[in-house]
Amino acid sequence: MRLAVIILTKNEEHNIEGAVKSASFADEVVVLDSGSTDRTREFAERLGARFVVHLMGEDGFAGQRNAALDETDADWVFYLDADERITDEAAKEMMRCVKANEWFAYRIKRMNILFGQVMRHGSHAPDYVMRLFPRTMVRWKGVVHESAITELPVRALKGVLCHYTYTDWDRYFVKFNQYTTLMAKKMEEGGKRASFLDILLHPSFAFFQSYILKLGFLDGKQGFIFALNHFFYTMIKYVKLYYATTRVREDRKGC
């Protein structure tokens, strides 16, 4: 039984080496890139990864994950983001699962690390993500925050992923802009509309949920900063939706 680790990238020269090295235990590492203009390809291929260019289409991140399945003939696949690292314990456990070849989908605990601090609470608390599958038994859906579709029963791995979510503010705001745009587009395509009241209420609840209900205040100043950022993320998502749908209505009226 062979395992391929799949990594999606775009301009990840600062992350790709660490990701590929942490996946070096696998039989194959496939990097599916959506149009990098930096040195991502050079660094990935230097470490032996197979680099495939596949520009992102309207089906977003799910489309990229699905396309990657056609780039390997491995029996099992594990999806790794460029800013994640597979721990040694998780790597050994994965290989045991692959060799056993029992058909389950496996989820793994992900520890989110923001600017060097492991987040225990709030919107960046540890979460579980489904990542290990028999290659022919998974498809993905969702333009952003995509999810795996599988009929297999799910088991949990004991190992963890280290997720170095944000390490500098420039990249944070690049992703902030990208994800808010994709989420607004996803809501619009689903027939959702936003009012000015949505712009006021949804962000306020997002902050309350992250900082109070999910105990973000226990993460100290970092907990407050990212609860506040969650407020702005939610607000901008609804602002973009509001103006996208308002523009459509205004275009129909004419000048």
List its traits.
nine-stranded mixed beta sheet, two-stranded antiparallel sheet, alpha/beta, 255 residues
Main sheet record = 9 strands, mixed
Q: Give the count of structural domains.
A: 2
- What's the overall geometry? globular
Highest CATH level, the class of the largest domain: Alpha Beta
Fold blueprint:
Elements: E1 3-9, H1 16-22, E2 28-33, H2 40-46, E3 50-53, H3 60-68, E4 76-81, E5 84-86, H4 88-100, E6 105-114, E7 117-118, E8 127-134, E9 139-141, E10 147-149, E11 154-166, H5 169-189, H6 196-213, H7 220-253
Parallel strand pairs: 1-2, 1-4, 2-3, 6-11
Antiparallel strand pairs: 4-8, 5-11, 6-7, 6-8, 9-10
Helix pairs in contact: 5-7, 6-7
Structure, explained:
The chain is an alpha/beta fold and 255 residues long. It has two domains: 3-166, Spore Coat Polysaccharide Biosynthesis Protein SpsA, Chain A (Alpha-Beta Complex), CATH 3.90.550; 169-253, no CATH class. The protein contains seven helices and eleven strands. The chain has helices at residues 16-22, 40-46, 60-68, 88-100, 169-189, 196-213, 220-253, and strands spanning 3-9, 28-33, 50-53, 76-81, 84-86, 105-114, 117-118, 127-134, 139-141, 147-149, 154-166. The strands form two sheets. Strands 1, 2, 3, 4, 5, 6, 7, 8 and 11 form a nine-stranded mixed sheet that branches. α5 (169-189) packs across α7 (220-253) and α6 packs antiparallel against α7 (220-253). The chain is globular.
